[in-house]
Amino acid sequence: MDGDSTLEPRQRDRYSRQLLIEGIDPADQRTLLSSCVLVVGVGGLGSSIIQYLAAAGVGTIGIVDDGRVKRSNLQRQVVHTVDDIGDPKVDSAARFVDALNPAIDIETHETRIEPSSAEALLEGHDVVVDALDNFVGRFVVNDAAVLAGIPFVHGAVYGFEGQTTVFRPDGPCYRCLLPEPPGEEGIPSDEPMGVFPTAPGTIGCLQATEVLKLLLGIGEPLEGHLLRYDGTDATFLRTPLKRDPDCPLCGPNGPEIESLETVAYDDRCRIERSASTE
């Protein structure tokens, strides 16, 4: 079968540069066009992730954020503009994607990720991406992804630095990397934290790359490794990450959990106990 026949002429033109890469053919592009990715957070990381997934032709992108665009966001959150100030971030991001690639379907969820809603938000997606700026939200996304059997691409930035990795159902999860939220001395206060403008772009691009690799089944995903970036000296450090046998969620001695509704969290999203299946 002639692979080009699987794409329309405009699609072959739009995605022609990636189709010239050895190992990526029109059938792979059709895979991207039929894929569905959920991006949780539409700030600095989310801006970079969303625009490159849309540019690459990921057919459906769900975006979750309960925030509104502020002037201080514009220094790094590049899908938003001055005209968007005051608008919901999900609406601003949807307009950006529509202008970049009108063929992409955007599903907007103007809400905060919570244990009560996470499983429903993740349902039907091939990959979920962490573009959050808080630990509690990451734990909720991680837990829902583990229970749903969905790959989870993590990313975080602070100052000049950032990190990213991939969690898959048969590997370590976020709680293996960070068993519980840091103590109060290790958590940034409610005051705005410093972020170098390009740091989220760097990490977000890496996250988008990992998402595309997962969807296409190419290369070696970052599963089992944490990639740290320091913009001050342009260095990357790749360290192994193994499953924690004492992990309360994915460890071999962990409880059997069918739904987040059976998980009891404390006020910082640590698992206190869970209802085992009968």
TrEMBL record:
Domain THIF-type NAD/FAD binding fold per the UniProt entry, residue ranges: 15-248
GO molecular function list: ATP binding; nucleotidyltransferase activity; sulfotransferase activity; thiosulfate-cyanide sulfurtransferase activity; ubiquitin-like modifier activating enzyme activity
Keyword Metal-binding belongs to the record: no
Transmembrane feature ranges: none
Pfam families: ThiF (PF00899)
Keywords noted in UniProt: ATP-binding, Nucleotide-binding, Nucleotidyltransferase, Plasmid, Transferase
GO cellular component: cytosol
Enzyme's top EC category: transferase
InterPro entries tied to this protein: ThiF/MoeB/HesA (IPR045886), ThiF_NAD_FAD-bd (IPR000594), Ubiquitin-activating_enz (IPR035985)
UniProt EC number: 2.7.7.-
PANTHER family linked: ADENYLYLTRANSFERASE AND SULFURTRANSFERASE MOCS3, UBIQUITIN-ACTIVATING ENZYME E1
Protein known as: SAMP-activating enzyme E1
